[in-house]
Design a protein that fits this description.
CATH topology: Spore Coat Polysaccharide Biosynthesis Protein SpsA, Chain A
Strand order of the largest sheet: 3-2-1-4-6-5-7
Helix content: 40-55%
Mean pLDDT: 85
Distance between the termini: 27 Å
Largest sheet: 7 strands, mixed
Order of helices and strands: EHHEHEHEHEHEHHEH
Number of strands: 7
Number of helices: 9
Structural class: alpha/beta
Radius of gyration: 17 Å
CATH architecture: Alpha-Beta Complex
CATH superfamily: Spore Coat Polysaccharide Biosynthesis Protein SpsA, Chain A
CATH class: Alpha Beta
Number of domains: 1
Low-confidence stretches: none
Length: about 260
């Protein structure tokens, strides 16, 4: 990258996030960005929300020229991210979740990594994970242990939704995910697509820097449905384990060669 100040496209996927939106998360993002000296834009990629999210965002961006609403048919989180990336016009693309469990201000910690020459700088939630139930704390340790036995041993936290990429690189890599080869999922399916994405980037020789960021579970949305904590945990754990094993099998078969 050049030595001039970077420009940043912030991509926020959205699926039935009305309760988080009502908390004022978009104001949090806007209040931070308007204080920055670099060029920026925000792309809210709505993944076919069925609640009031789309109308809420549409009204919010109406008088904000740097904000873009990309209304997409339902296809799952990676599909929403891909829709946002295709609209991005800045040098860098930041993925951040609507619930702002990692606050947008943590971007200050990622940008120095880009200045150091890293094309991929990802947030890490550390070990404490404030707001995680004991069940999920234990589950995250099990997942990291299993995943690192096969892939990305140098990365502690692949699943944090706060990631910064060079735009051209993520444009080239994201559509290569196996996710886009299958049938679009129903609902906001929790997968380990992050593992495959980071594996592809790492395999392509793109340096990945991991930076610890603040994180506290602030999600109040109905995105994941109304299942109990145990039901969600079991369903997501099985799905994520299957994804990691699939990526490893693909690697062994040479499908990423």
């Amino acid at each position: 990258m050049s030595e001039q100040a970077p420009s940043v496209s912030v991509v926020i996927p959205c699926y039935n996030e009305e309760k988080n939106l009502q908390r004022g998360v978009l104001d949090e993002v806007n209040d931070y960005l308007v204080q920055q000296t670099y060029d920026w834009e925000v792309i809210v990629a709505d993944d076919g929300s069925t609640d009031g999210s789309l109308a809420f965002v549409e009204q919010y961006v109406a008088d904000k020229p740097r904000w873009i609403l990309e209304a997409l048919p339902h296809g799952g989180k990676p599909s929403a991210l891909w829709g946002g990336v295709q609209r991005a016009r800045c040098d860098l693309v930041l993925f951040t979740d609507m619930d702002q469990s990692t606050p947008i201000g943590e971007l200050d910690k990622l940008l120095p990594g880009v200045a150091q020459g890293y094309p991929v700088v990802i947030g890490s939630r550390g070990m404490s994970r404030e707001g995680f139930s004991l069940l999920r704390q234990v589950g995250s340790i099990v997942f990291r242990t299993m995943r690192s036995a096969f892939l990305l041993r140098q990365v502690r936290d692949t699943q944090c939704g706060f990631k910064l990429f060079q735009r051209e690189m993520i444009l080239d890599t994201l559509p290569k995910l196996q996710f886009f080869q299958g049938e679009a999922p129903k609902g906001w399916k929790v997968t380990a697509y992050d593992v495959e994405l980071l594996y592809l980037l790492d395999r392509g020789g793109h340096g990945i820097l991991e930076v610890e960021v603040e994180w506290e579970n602030r999600d109040v949305s109905d995105t994941k449905g109304h299942r109990s904590e145990m039901q969600r945990y079991l369903r997501e754990s099985v799905s994520m384990a299957r994804e990691v094993l699939r990526v490893n099998v693909n690697r062994i078969k040479g499908m990423y060669d």
